[in-house]
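Issue 218. Parser rejects a valid record. Input:
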Amino acid sequence: MSALVLISALIIGVSVGLLGSGGSILTVPVLVHLVQLPEKVAIVSSLGVVAQISFIALLPYLWRRHLDFGLFKRFAVPAFVGTLLGVALAQWLHASVQLLILAVLMLGSAANMWRKTIWQWKINSSLLLAVLAMSLGLLTGLVGVGGGFLIVPLLLAVTAISMSAAIACSLALIFLQSSTGFISHYWLMSLQDQELPLALIFWLGFIGACGSLLGIVLSAYIPQLWVRKLFSVLLIGTSVSLLWPLVR
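Output the parser choked on:
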């Protein structure tokens, strides 16, 4: 692995620690452009990397008892079902379509992160919440994103929990969705005699996990608005790098 790949993994982890999101949406471009994995393999591998990062990042929040298990369970079941549906659908989509969806999501996330106040959606319907959770799971299985960039503002909009509790719930959902997506994809690929770079996934996840702990420490000292604006610029640049080969 090159030094640039290792630094990228560290940055991905720091973003998860600072924002409770952002890891998976950056991991796929890193694996495609820097590691030069095939698109389908990169999408699946990103789920394994992000599952590790989100689990380690979640531990300090569990220690401080910031995770609302009741709220987590409301989202967990539909998100789990959505992830399985996304994995099934991904088998029929061309890799370029998956990357196009990911790039569009990145641009939308960048616009949201740039704002002084993150967009929020006032939702009171339990059914609609379940549909949204399932949709987030679907995206996870489909394009390898954990959905944290959507989960955090959604939780803040529909509950009275603190930012710390929203990040904790987001990390728990990301771990659930990413690990479910990775295991499901891995099983399907093994049936087709396809292999994943497991050693690479482990080391990127390990370095990213260390970065997430660093991000949690830094979050006490760095203004969230600064972090979000920097992350927004990074997302725009990365999304353009994904779109360019598709449109040229």
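Fixed in the parser; the record now loads. Residues 17 and 216 are 5 Å apart (CA to CA).
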